[in-house]
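Thread title: Can someone regenerate the structure for this chain?

I was given the following input by a collaborator and told the matching structure tokens would be attached. They weren't. Posting the sequence so someone can regenerate them.
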Amino acid sequence: QLQLVESGGGLVQPGGSLRLSCATSGRGLHDYGVGWFRQAPGKEREPLACISSSGASTNYADSVKGRFTISRDNAKNMMYLQMNSLKPEDTGIYYCNTLSFWGQGTQVTVSS
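Best answer:
Regenerated them for you:
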């Protein structure tokens, strides 16, 4: 079993930044690729970014490319999402994921 817990969400003005964290417990995270997803109000959950088990490879959705950066620290069993130049359309609940495991999500609201 593997547990994921997101943190770092909040209210931020357009153009601002936030850094989300995903803490894991249970099995070690280092063997698996991990990703961040977002569910905006009234929309389906969508993938935003993923990173390979070693951290050597990353991929981003077009909507966040150049603004968001995914990273991981396998020694600490942590994953991060640095979000810059935030837009109102980035509002939603952000989830971290690996294999079939999901966190409870953290709310991000971008509004002036």
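The CA atoms of residues 5 and 20 lie 10 Å apart.
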